[in-house]
Design a protein that fits this description.
With 535 residues, this protein is α+β, with helices and mostly antiparallel strands. It contains 11 helices and 25 strands. Helix 9 links the parallel strand 15 and strand 16. The site of zinc ion (ZN) has 7 residues, from helix 7.
């Protein structure tokens, strides 16, 4: 099922020479960006009736005959470009020279040539930064529509929805706010991300890991529950953990932006703790969002490079602010390439059935201000769930938890965040096929990683026995290390769930008494145990 619904029109990265120009192409009414991509030029950003392209001299001449085309910059290869979108009346023309060079001012914001220092300075401003990737967009031609849904027990869906708790979500927002700063380049953000990863582990994900994407930045946190029937079909829920503020990097409380969305991801993982899925489910906490979607960009590209069949990615960003009676919740989907309407409609149907969320559908060709955009750019179906009543404390020190409906804070409506999370839980349960475990013997043995049960005797003499919950997969291994971390030997295994070490190294010589570590690697899950070997 890999790539079934995806036809890639532009796959020309490796062979093309360095482009001469970054140019902006205006589209006629009724045209969309595929009209430009079909000519073979590298389209790097689809911007709603216009697009950005990388072209050489000849392509520029050809393109100019078909469209109003404007060169923005020469030799773009080595530069950093940002789309800077202002909030609350901020004037983007003032960015010129202070933060970079303004190449174009559009209705949505400005296109800026800048650098890392410019990005750091702009993180103190009330703007959303979108990094313009100099990589061709990937287009999905086929409109997949609602996938075939697994059979799911309705009563289980109700139980799962009822497990979503206001206080649990509030607690997670509070905990994240208490990190004091989650600015991506601050050590404290690393700690927050590791806390999110540890929660994914505590909540029973089959594998969890940190996903580094750029030096000096906190990594992404990843938790995965593998599907018991179709592990190659993937659904996901995500939110960015990092934040910025006018006092960055040392203080960025970010309760609404985006402890609230992260709390939805954590709460989903929590209520699914004892649940299995037919399809795989990813739980993702991103960093580097505020510097231009860095974390989700590399995560989505990683999935695309692997050929992962992600059928839907639910993104939540700022879901806890809404004053009384204006607390509607927007679900933003893309109209084409990929068409995300089925997902938006599906989510709203679940919200209307199981929750009191006042959802509002918003379909667009371009909404690059959060992590769903990274998935859209790879042709993956995704949406952004976001408050409609936007907090006035966006990217300020005031983005903290306040009383219900209070105006001057970040989080003033945990009930709305709770209802949105409930709708997300129901959606994922139905899409990914939630079911309660029915016994180990019914589980396909090749899907779940073997877990380490114990190493014995310790202390004691060889042979040492290593016991696992199930046999290792074909690529699984158990390696022995000494106390200094040097590899001693790799144990042979023939499919059993118990391995034995005779106390010799790779060349068959007896090793001295001491502490030895046993590392079990199976289906991307690593576990380590220690034993003391006596003579
Ligand atoms: Zn955000």
């Amino acid at each position: 099922m890999k790539n079934a619904a995806l036809t890639v029109l532009a796959v020309t990265t490796a062979v093309l020479a360095a482009p001469d120009y970054l140019a902006m192409v205006e589209l006629e009414p009724g045209q969309d960006v595929r009209f430009v991509a079909e000519t073979g030029v590298r389209v790097v950003e689809d911007m709603d009736q216009r697009c950005l392209v990388l072209v050489d001299e000849d392509e520029l001449a050809l393109l100019s005959q078909r469209h109003a085309t404007r060169v923005l910059d020469n030799d773009p290869g080595a530069n950093t470009y940002m789309l800077v979108m202002p909030r609350s009346g901020f004037d983007v023309s003032g960015l010129d020279r202070r933060h970079g060079t303004v190449l174009a001012v559009l209705d949505r914001g400005a296109i800026l040539r800048t650098d890392e220092a410019g990005v750091f300075e702009m993180n103190a401003l009330p703007v959303e930064l979108v990094r313009i990737r100099l990589e061709p967009l990937q287009f999905s031609e086929v409109d997949a529509g609602l996938p075939v849904l697994p059979m799911v027990d309705d009563s289980l869906v109700r139980v799962l929805a009822d497990r979503v708790e206001h206080d649990s979500i509030l607690g997670a927002i509070q905990r994240l706010q208490d990190f004091y700063t989650r600015y991506s380049r601050h050590e404290s953000c690393n700690v927050a991300i590791e806390w999110v990863r540890s929660k994914f582990e505590e909540y029973g994900c089959d594998t969890t890991f940190l996903f580094p994407f750029r030096s000096g930045y906190a990594p992404n946190a990843v938790g995965i529950k593998y599907g018991t029937t179709n592990p190659d079909i993937i659904y996901g829920i995500c939110g960015h953990v990092d934040n910025t503020s006018d006092a960055r990097p040392d203080h960025c409380p970010g309760a609404d932006d985006n402890a609230s969305g992260t709390a939805a991801v954590l709460e989903a993982a929590r209520v699914f703790q004892d649940v299995e899925f037919e399809n795989t489910v990813q739980f993702l906490g991103f960093a580097g969002e505020e510097q231009g979607l860095y974390g989700s960009d590399s995560m989505a590209q990683w999935s695309r490079n692997r050929g992962d069949s992600i059928l839907a990615m639910l993104n939540f960003d700022m879901i806890s602010y809404g004053r009384e009676n204006i607390d509607t919740f927007e679900i933003i989907g893309k109209t084409y390439s990929p068409n995300c309407e089925w997902l938006v409609d599906f989510f709203i149907a679940q919200a209307d059935t199981f929750t009191t969320l006042k959802s509002k559908k918003y379909m667009t060709t371009y909404a690059p201000y959060s992590d769903h955009h990274s998935y859209w750019q790879r042709g993956y179906v995704s949406f952004c769930g976001i408050e409609n009543d936007f907090t006035p404390e966006y990217h300020t020190l005031g983005d903290t938890i306040g009383p219900l409906y209070y105006e001057w804070c970040g989080t003033n409506n945990v009930p709305m965040a709770t209802q949105a999370t409930k709708a997300a839980v129901v959606s994922l349960a139905k899409l990914a096929g939630a079911h309660l475990p029915t016994g180990v013997e019914e589980r396909p043995v090749d899907v779940r990683p073997a877990r380490l049960l114990g190493v014995s005797p310790s202390p004691g003499p060889a042979p040492v026995s290593i016991r696992l919950t199930s046999p290792l997969g074909p690529d699984g291994s158990v390696e022995v290390f000494d106390a200094n971390g040097r590899s001693v030997t790799q144990l042979a295994h023939s499919g059993g769930s118990e391995l034995s070490w005779d106390g010799t190294d790779a060349s068959g010589l007896r090793v001295p008494a001491g502490v030895y570590l046993f590392r079990v690697l199976d289906r991307a899950r690593t576990q380590t145990a220690k034993a003391v070997l006596t003579e």
